[in-house]
């Protein structure tokens, strides 16, 4: 079992985004995030699912060249949506 708050494994990410593609689509999830922000219960559930039940507190660090710091997980997820880099992990 994974530690709460840790990112999904590569296989779990595949399953996560396969689930999104077959149900609400990545773009719809991103659109919900853009419209309602981090406080929306569906957005929070998706973020919790993606991190084994716990949304990591900020700041969030990544190995992105030129953009390696995000104030919180929602900002990081919004960045992934804008850049269409759905499998990007921290």
TrEMBL record:
<protein>
    <recommendedName>
        <fullName>Acrosin-binding protein</fullName>
    </recommendedName>
</protein>
<dbReference type="GO" id="GO:0005634">
    <property type="term" value="C:nucleus"/>
</dbReference>
<dbReference type="GO" id="GO:0001669">
    <property type="term" value="C:acrosomal vesicle"/>
</dbReference>
<comment type="function">
    <text>Acrosomal protein that maintains proacrosin (pro-ACR) as an enzymatically inactive zymogen in the acrosome. Involved also in the acrosome formation.</text>
</comment>
<dbReference type="InterPro" id="IPR009865">
    <property type="entry name" value="Proacrosin-bd"/>
</dbReference>
<keyword id="KW-0597">Phosphoprotein</keyword>
<keyword id="KW-0732">Signal</keyword>
<keyword id="KW-0968">Cytoplasmic vesicle</keyword>
<dbReference type="Pfam" id="PF07222">
    <property type="entry name" value="PBP_sp32"/>
</dbReference>
């Amino acid at each position: 079992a994974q530690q709460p708050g840790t990112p999904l494994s590569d296989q779990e990410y595949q399953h996560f985004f396969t689930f999104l593609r077959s149900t609400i689509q990545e773009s719809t999830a991103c659109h919900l995030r853009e419209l309602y922000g981090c406080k929306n219960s569906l957005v929070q559930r998706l973020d919790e699912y993606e991190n084994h039940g716990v949304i990591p507190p900020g700041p969030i660090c990544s190995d992105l060249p030129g953009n390696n710091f995000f104030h919180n997980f929602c900002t990081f997820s919004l960045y992934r949506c804008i850049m269409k880099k759905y499998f990007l992990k921290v």
